[in-house]
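Example 9 (inverse folding). The structure is encoded as follows.
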């Protein structure tokens, strides 16, 4: 009889953080619409999570809301932004100026989350020497000379999958503490870095599963 391999443990805290991020997104939307008060039931309707799960998630980080009243949208929005470390500006270096990288820098999500791209690097001669939103595009070959690592909080790496590991290694040696990359392969994170992956193939797998 063949034993099935044990399923890898899911990091519970990471799942909670992901849900709290969606709650913050909902609060941003409601705040923009002028909504003042909301309840756990509203979260349930909008995000499809149970009221009890919302309350348990929020309880991980403190006491929020008023019993019998609900949550003040603007107050809870600011509290969750603080929990997620998004209540202060984060300087970002973008590695990869074309295609997906260009889409990211023009996204409103950056400004809403206090993320500001302050440096851009690319290896394509068509981009090097140009600028995006007034930010010069530097040659990737000069990363060690041009990157102002002391003022960079995190990197967004939008390069071809075979190049990701090399870029992460270089950023780690320069002292960058965090990076998000987009590739369907794992990389080895330097000991001084937190590295996360956004893999579209995983999300597509979930989508096709739900479609049946």
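The amino acid assigned to each position is listed next.
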């Amino acid at each position: 009889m063949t034993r099935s391999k044990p399923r890898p443990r899911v990091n519970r805290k990471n799942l909670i953080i992901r849900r709290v991020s969606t709650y913050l997104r909902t609060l941003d939307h409601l705040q923009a619409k002028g909504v003042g008060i909301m309840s756990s039931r509203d979260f349930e309707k909008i995000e499809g999570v149970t009221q009890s799960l919302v309350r348990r998630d929020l309880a991980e980080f403190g006491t929020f809301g008023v019993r019998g009243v609900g949550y003040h949208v603007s107050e809870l929005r600011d509290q969750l932004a603080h929990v997620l470390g998004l209540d202060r500006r984060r300087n970002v270096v973008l590695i990869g100026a074309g295609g997906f990288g260009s889409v990211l820098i023009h996204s409103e999500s950056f400004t809403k989350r206090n993320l500001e791209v302050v440096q851009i690097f690319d290896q394509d001669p068509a981009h090097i020497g140009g600028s995006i939103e007034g930010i010069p595009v530097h040659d990737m070959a000069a990363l060690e000379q041009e990157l102002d690592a002391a003022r960079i909080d995190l990197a967004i790496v939008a390069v071809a999958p075979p190049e990701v590991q090399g870029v992460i290694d270089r950023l780690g040696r320069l002292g960058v503490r965090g990076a998000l990359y987009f590739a369907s392969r794992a990389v080895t994170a330097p000991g001084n870095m937190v590295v996360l992956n956004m893999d579209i193939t995983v999300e597509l797998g979930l989508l096709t599963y739900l479609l049946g």
